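ok trying again, last paste got cut off:
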Amino acid sequence: MYLTEKLAISLGKKARILLNVDKNREQIIVYGAINLLQTIFSISWIAIAGFILGVLYEALIFSTTASILRKYSGGVHASSPNRCIIIGTVLSSASGLVIDKFSYNISLTTTTAMGMFFITASFTIVMLKAPVDSIKKPITDLNMKKRFKKNSIVTLTVFSMVVVILSTLYESTLKLYYLKIIHSIILGILWQSFTLTKMGITIFEKVDFILKSITERS
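nice, full thing came through this time. structure:
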């Protein structure tokens, strides 16, 4: 049993006694606590790694963008919460480093062209693939699937509007951090959309398998 699960079960038992709820309510509390704790741990590790590498806000924006879209679009899952945190931390930090290094050399014109291409590709993938559920939690309700797809498209639309606003702000102020935020959002959208594809799922599963082999040997 993982640390998050142990903490969540402990919180659930205490909540059951304190709130005087039944076993079913306790399970709901435990499930919610697991999700909350995993989110807290994930953000904390990304923040720590990003801070150490000097790419704190790039890593956090990348991760947050991908997570928000993932909430509705679904996507491939790691085989354990710990491996999910490791993959998320490494990926977000690496993306932050790439953004920090190359944002100085990429003009707004190039950024706009890249943004249009990547966002269009993401819209196409989401419309064709989303939502991608998991084996453990399959989505069987057709109306729910339609709602998730619609919410995924709305989320992408909102991010696209944010990118347009940030591009306008950068053009008028030439502040580099606007460009970095744009790149972080675009890469976050692109990565999350990629995890909906067959190739993305295959690559993610191979990385997860390698991590699983390493952690089980140690």
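cool. Residues 1-53 form one domain. The mean pLDDT is 87.
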